């Protein structure tokens, strides 16, 4: 199925894209065309080989989207709505590419933008916005995922104008080829707070090892990181990161991006299933003519559309400055849960053909499992929302 005559997606039944202004829509369509030509034809092959398309990184830089919204970058300002639609668009084509971009432009650049001094923002963000330097974000640890706020084991010891980092990190996207890695560590000593550091990958004592044998987001280069007496200058400590509350502020914004990605995965699954059932013939006609098939298709589209409405409102709250932790937490938990259901229905409609890469849906089914887990599990995000609505914390 082709897009509508004005270039909008037929899957966007309520035409939410019309909420973008003309310039924003032109940017989104430029990204859409790039993904259609440069990513979509190869995404299954990259995923199957667990091979990241490093050759495309400069092309991504030419799009000029990584620096949007950061005043230190030359790019035009961007609304949260446009940023959300770009995340959706990437995930609709390839959740791995969306994850690479989200780690770089959201987590790494967002940490520097929100927790760095003006000098630090000027030092790093322009080159990162052009994607001449790639960023990673190292928070999760081998023994610390959901409890990382209290259980952070990576340490930072100050020696004069230098900080010495020791510890391990796990599941760090982009870390095998990133130039700059934002590392979160707890300062040694009684009452030591959480600090953020921009670690250059060439720093002695920093080692990143590729995680292999993944069944989701296989194109993403996740890494285990080991920091051994890794010496980082004070000028690389994020000057406005004073505790985990600042880390959580970064996560609040990027968590909403995952909700947008989940919608993109749902729309991809729906489009694949719709096209397939219109073409697949059984019992003398296309299977799309059967009531039970149409029921599943409408359920898929309804879930995706309702979640799209949710994240659109989330972006509006963010732009209005009334965006809170529970807003992004509830959206991430709800949208990724619905995503799991939707991709499952899509695979069901493709029957046996749904378990091979040749028909497209299998990659989205597998990648949905990673989106469901990262940036806070459903349970943790539910508890964040529950604490907000009841006034009672129930984490332990």
From TrEMBL:
- Domain named Acyl-CoA oxidase/dehydrogenase middle: which ranges? 136-229
Q: Which residues form the Acyl-CoA dehydrogenase/oxidase C-terminal domain?
A: 242-389
Q: Which UniProt keywords apply?
A: FAD, Flavoprotein, Oxidoreductase
Give the E.C. number(s): 1.3.8.6
Q: Which residues cross the membrane?
A: none
Instruction: Specify the superkingdom.
Output: Bacteria
Q: Which Pfam families match?
A: Acyl-CoA_dh_1, Acyl-CoA_dh_M, Acyl-CoA_dh_N
GO BP of this protein: fatty acid beta-oxidation
State the needed cofactors, names only.
Answer: FAD
| Acyl-CoA dehydrogenase/oxidase N-terminal domain segment(s) | 22-132
Which GO molecular function terms does the record list?
flavin adenine dinucleotide binding; glutaryl-CoA dehydrogenase activity
First-tier enzyme category under EC: oxidoreductase
Family the entry assigns: Belongs to the acyl-CoA dehydrogenase family.
Checking PANTHER family in the record gives: ACYL-COA DEHYDROGENASE, ACYL-COENZYME A OXIDASE
Report the protein name in the record: Glutaryl-CoA dehydrogenase
């Amino acid at each position: 199925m082709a897009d509508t005559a004005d270039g909008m997606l037929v899957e966007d039944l309520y035409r939410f894209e019309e909420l973008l202004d003309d310039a924003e829509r032109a940017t989104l369509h430029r990204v859409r065309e790039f993904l259609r030509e440069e990513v979509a034809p190869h995404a299954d092959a990259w995923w199957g080989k667990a091979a990241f398309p490093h050759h495309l990184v400069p092309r991504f830089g030419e799009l000029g989207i990584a620096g949007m919204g950061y005043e230190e970058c030359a790019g035009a300002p961007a609304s949260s709505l446009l940023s959300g639609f770009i995340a959706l668009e990437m995930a609709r084509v390839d959740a791995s590419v969306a994850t690479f971009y989200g780690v770089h432009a959201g987590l790494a650049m967002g940490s520097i933008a929100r927790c760095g001094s003006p000098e630090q923002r000027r030092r790093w963000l322009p080159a990162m916005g052009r994607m001449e330097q790639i960023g990673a974000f190292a928070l999760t640890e081998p023994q610390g995922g959901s409890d990382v706020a209290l259980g952070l084991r990576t340490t930072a010891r100050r020696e004069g104008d230098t900080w010495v980092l020791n510890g391990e990190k796990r599941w760090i996207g982009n870390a095998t080829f990133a130039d700059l890695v934002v590392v979160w560590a707890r300062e040694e000593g009684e009452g030591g707070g959480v600090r953020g550091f921009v670690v250059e990958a060439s720093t002695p004592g920093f080692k990143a090892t590729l995680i292999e044998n993944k069944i989701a987001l296989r194109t993403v280069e996740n890494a285990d990181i080991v920091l051994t007496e890794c010496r980082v200058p004070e000028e690389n400590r994020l000057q406005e990161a004073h505790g985990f509350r600042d880390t959580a502020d970064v996560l609040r914004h990027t968590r909403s991006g995952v909700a947008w990605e989940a919608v993109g995965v749902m729309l991809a699954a729906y489009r694949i299933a719709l096209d397939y059932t219109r073409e697949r013939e059984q019992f003398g006609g296309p299977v799309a003519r059967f009531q039970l098939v149409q029921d599943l298709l409408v359920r898929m589209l309804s879930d995706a559309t309702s979640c799209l409405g949710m994240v659109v409102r989330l972006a509006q709250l963010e732009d209005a400055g009334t965006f809170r932790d529970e807003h992004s937490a509830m959206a991430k938990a709800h949208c990724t849960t619905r995503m799991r259901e939707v991709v499952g229905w899509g695979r069901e409609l493709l029957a046996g053909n749904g378990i091979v890469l040749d028909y497209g849906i299998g990659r989205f089914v597998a990648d949905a499992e990673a989106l469901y887990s990262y940036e806070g599990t459903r349970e943790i995000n539910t508890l964040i929302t529950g604490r907000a609505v009841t006034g009672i914390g129930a984490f332990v």
